[in-house]
Protein 1
Amino acid sequence: MKALITGASSGIGRDIAIVLNKMGHDLVLVSRSGDKLRELSKSLKGNVKIIPLDLSNPNACFELYEMIKDDGIDILVNNAGYAAFGEFCQTPLETELNLIDLNIKAVHIISKLFLKDFMAKDKGYILNVASVAGVLGGGPLLSSYYASKAYVVRLSQAIYEELRRKGSNVSISILCPGPVDTNFNERAGVRFAVKGMNSLDVAKYAVDSMFKGKLMIFPGAKTKAGAFLRRLAPEKLLLKLTYDFQKAKE
Ligand SMILES: NC(=O)c1ccc[n+]([C@@H]2O[C@H](COP(=O)([O-])OP(=O)(O)OC[C@H]3O[C@@H](n4cnc5c(N)ncnc54)[C@H](OP(=O)(O)O)[C@@H]3O)[C@@H](O)[C@H]2O)c1
């Protein structure tokens, strides 16, 4: 099979590329940094195409589709994303609009374009990388990020049920990690208050769960527990706990 992976130059996307490639799948790798993608591609085998693009530009998402729509993509991993830390009244609007363009719009556009093709051939896997932040509720101090990941969760869940009702063989999964050791913190300008999971472990678990057709993928016992306990906690208590958890990252 052939996989398209966005945000493949580092962290979870890079490791998903490595895991899929080890399984023998061909790859199309996308991120802004062509040099990092080129370096990664040297360590991979088989047919690996790299496409440097800034996917926060919606036109780039359409360009990407036009470039590879006839390449026979069967696995789509929407992984590129980032967070912006700070109080909503102080964080730069420009950054947040860019975050929405990447974390929401790019996932929306690319999912729609490839889903249509996958449905036409009645096969394919979509793995949308959200976060446990997407199921926890409001995210004080990371408000736009939590909201963007909730969008990814809700959109993907709805698509899942539409596919199921059709008896489709196309599968959609949502990866919801807790903290993972990547470049994520550096870009968000924070440090983790707890130890992050190993990115390769997360990638292996995600790929395995995707091929099993799991809808919600929570890597690690703590993340699973958090997602479960979240359902029991009152909304305002959750907001207080989330604020304290995020504040510790400053
Ligand atoms: N690390 C965590 O704790 C954690 C937890 C839950 C969910 N996640 C999610 O996991 C995904 C991957 O993040 P990560 O932790 O692996 O962070 P990362 O190491 O910073 O990787 C982010 C990837 O996205 C790419 N990217 C960023 N902006 C882009 C743009 N405008 N256009 C195209 N590609 C872009 C980056 O490459 P370039 O810089 O080369 O563009 C990089 O390959 C994100 O969606 C994140 O929200 C992370």
Protein 2
Amino acid sequence: MTERVPYDRPGALLFAATSPASPSSLAPGGLSGGSGQSPSARPEEENAASARLLPPGEAGLAGSIVRVRIPLPFPLRWVNSYLIPDSSEAGADRGWSLVDPGLHTPEAIAVWERVLAELDLKPAKLSRIVLTHHHPDHYGLAGWFQQRSGGAPVLLSPEGRRQVERLWGPGTPLAGETLRLFEQHGLGSARLADMRTHLESFLLQVNPQPELTELRAGECVRMGGADWLAIHTPGHAFGHLCLYQPEERLMLAGDHVLPRITPNISFIPGEDGDPLGSYLRSLAEIAHYPVQLALPGHRDPFPDLPGRAAEIARHHEERLAKMAAALAVPLSAAELCEAYFGKELTVHSLRFALSETIAHLIRLEALGLAEREERDGLIRYRACRVGEGRK
Ligand SMILES: [Zn+2]
């Protein structure tokens, strides 16, 4: 079912599609972050129950943006898509923009069909699809919308575009590279076999593949009659973009800053050599933008972007310190991952946990706090005192 729900800022209207996905709790262990609760303005549980209606457009751009919760078949439960009408005019002639349409599943299509009908938005009037990053839960339906719209441009960063080709282009080279990486970092053969199946399972959920147009950091996109600045915010994804609207001080944050959960920071072969270092830098940078409301890719919109960015940075500093302490004996990333996140992870969670462990180990190495040893094709890390490690 879908329903309109109010946000605490007068006039800001959200559109919620209740998720038919499993109501299970968050991903296990530190994956879900849990380092402090963000000052989310309204608990998400209340969203579904609220019935107060406000007409769109009453409070400028913020009042006309519609959030659609698209169900996901994993513990994140939903991804936030944002609809931004091109003008306040109602009716069938209204153009609109779409940010991060969601994963291609039958459940997601059913939600979209219902939402478009209820809002009287015509696919042929879709002006553009903007992607904060290329991960399947955001990118998956871009091609479906492009086809339905008759060719609306799909905007993605140049780095994201390259990753799309490596992930889902001919030969899907990134899957093999990821499996080799995990093997070097100590993942056993049974888990590797599960991982191969898991990585291949996403192909159907991102089809059809869209024709992509590059959106570069520093460029502006016109949405809702206003300019949105694309800001490079790498770390969660190579080439991740946040979109900033300065007059209304709105930030489409993608998965760069999330409330209540910490974005996954993964080392991916062939991307950023130190994703956690990039992430912590871009987290500090985003906190400088004056923002009254951050619109994240998961969970609920929230007001305090700098406060949440600082909490997430602290979470990673604490995790780095704990992992460094565990490396008194040399450990592979797979061993450290098991010690930190536990043995019982699903293959989906294991992929994130192991990639995130590797990202932290690489950061420790860059800080001179850990040293990599490679023997018989297996990589292990051990702690070293400041200044002792390789630079
Ligand atoms: Zn996401």
Protein 3
Amino acid sequence: MDGFSDNDIRKVIEADKAHVWHHLTQHKAFETADPRIIVEGKGMRVWDATGKEYIDAVSGAVWTVNVGYGRESIAKAIADQLVKLNYFAGAAGSIPGAIFADKLIAKMPGLSRVYYANSGSEANEKAFKMVRQIAHKRYDGKKHKILYRDRDYHGSSIGTMAAGGQNERNIGYGPFPEGFVRVPHCLEYRAQWDLSGEEYGVRAAEAIEAVILHEGPDTVGALCLEPVTAGGGVIVPPEGYWPRVQEICDRYDILLHIDEVVCGMGRTGTWFGYEHYGLRPDFVTLAKGVASGYAAIGVMVTTEQVFDMFKDDASDPMNYFRDISTFGGCTAGPAAAIENMRIIEDEGLLDNCTAMGARGLANLEALMEKHKVVGDVRGKGLFLGAELVADRATKEPVSEKEVGAVVAECAAQGAIIGSMNRSVPGVNNVLCLAPALIATPDDIDQITDTMDRALTKVFG
Ligand SMILES: Cc1ncc(COP(=O)(O)O)c(C=O)c1O
């Protein structure tokens, strides 16, 4: 690393070990080993403090750096904006805030309003709060329930955890707020009904309807779903699912909230995951890929109809969205997001994502042919999963420890891949890939070749 001696690096590692509390980490391990400290990134690759190079198959570990590392044009857009105006609270407008909103809305027919926040959890909370406020304003507080799906994830705040379909994540953090109700997942590989294909999809959607009828449609305000479930195991809903979900929302006057925090901004080969399914969402939340991690940003996008409910009666002093996010007023996020969007457009990254996603899926299918431990592979665009099973007939999952061993072996061989961890009890057995949208065929092959060797090493 330029300008850093071995001694300097050692000091960094010691400072980290002494004072930094890492996310999602049991720190006992660092009493005998050093934490991984990533010091540099370029394109698809990152380097750690020991100088080891990795191909990053998960875009910053959590599907974020969609346009790759080391983008000077984004850094410059941020720097220029910060010198001009770094911050002013979001009750006022800003130049990049207005320009990005305009560009984003141009890609989202039917939606018209952008609310700025600074993370995916926060963007989702904004939508939840709007649903609640609409319930109080229009329905005497009755139509306040928010439905969420088994295996989906919407964030780390207590409110979004109440809408969390990954039970292991919630252990030890309750009690949670009321008014959140779970609907079944739609993963056909772990089928809950003896059907397949489109029929399965329709049945899984009808299971949502059954919950609505059980709760009472006049109590249900919104349905919050990921277009493709991410950390819950890369679940692409079956054919037939989404049209029926849309119909059900329309029938019972339920607001459809699509959480695009992972799928948004190109990850599945279209700007947004919901485009694949022709949905008409009332809320769309975005975060990770919006500025590819160059600046913190979360956005909640909604319709003019929802917006109007918060402004139609100006004589009521409480009739506006009484919410603020301090850092939703940072200008670096939208400044970075404008340039991030330009890069995706000018470099044809949506098409590349589709092509490289197809290659990745084909490579995973080849791994399934070769390794009997790979029970299922699935994905959309550059968002791919491989489910590992001890027995293909019974679909018994391998242990989380074995999944961890594959991930660790890939890292030892220079590829950072992802996996479910401590999310859904008993089935944390899915390996995840979400490389940057700039991936080349060689990059994709390097990732899956490394997985091939790691699977051989762990399972023989
Ligand atoms: C689908 C989904 N929604 C929301 C979130 C929460 O985003 P954040 O960590 O930015 O709060 C995540 C994070 O992984 C996510 O995967």
Protein 4
Amino acid sequence: MKAWMIKGEHEIELTDLGAQQVSSSCVKIKMLTSSIDTPEVALFNDSGQNLPLIAGRNGVGIVTETGEEVTGFKRGDRVYVRPVSSCGECSLCRSGHKSECEHSYTYGKTENGVLRDFMVVPQSDLILLPPKVSPDEGVFIESVALCIAAIDKLKLEKGEHIVIVGASSVGLILAQVALYYQAVPILVDMRQDRLDLAEKFGIYYTVNAVDTDPVKKIFSLTCGKMAETMAYCLFTNMPVQRAFECLARGGRAAFVGFDDAKINLTFDFMPLFHKALSVCSVTGAEDNYLSAVNMLASKAVDVLPLISKRVKFEEVGDSVKEVASCVTKYITLLVEIDKI
Ligand SMILES: [Zn+2]
């Protein structure tokens, strides 16, 4: 079995792991697709504390062998490797906040990841993909699930406005999920090509902050009321302060992104206090994986146009270096590991 291993800070190498035994409750899968994004870059930039570790957080594969106690999966099934698993027993897990569990493990962060040709995984970490979800679409499951978690945490109601700051892959998915929930997304970014893509997804309110003042525009779109909710997606150029100005008094805001993003955000808290805003963070997918699979299967969310580059398995090392030099260069970089 071959794997892309991060061996030290800024050191990535294709490593031969030899054969791996399939224990009784595990499943062997041939990997089909994965992606290179902020989690892979975070590991590549790691100072060494978690290394060496195989990279890759999101991946889809096909079952090639099952342990004798495995039920529910058979050879030929297409599966998504659930990237984060929580303990299910701590107080946070029991109160329904599994993504905040301190005992969780994450592929490509605390455990060897999915960027390999074959892997052996406990069956509890696998999600069966319906035929309508392709291996390319499958790598977006966690992002869709994160966006569902954001909608839940913001308590977004039908007909409410949600200002989404940042047309990253998460921002572009969140806008579609908001439409599905019959809310009114207003997407703000400074890259016209990303906003044009949003319009193709049916997002009818987009604001290019290069030539339009987002606060004035949102004032006019909401007839002076301003927005009830706002989601600040990481890796956007718009200052946080400005994003909060888009909210109405008593508005709800969320910072949305995976917890391995490294970014410095500073802002003045007093306007939050004066406008009685509530703010939360959304860093994980909670238990929304199956809902995300359903949204992809029913085509409520279109993710394929978010793939801005495809690379082969052999090219992963160079591609990780390329993405690390500019995280926002691609919306999503898809790795084609193998075909069915
Ligand atoms: Zn827990």
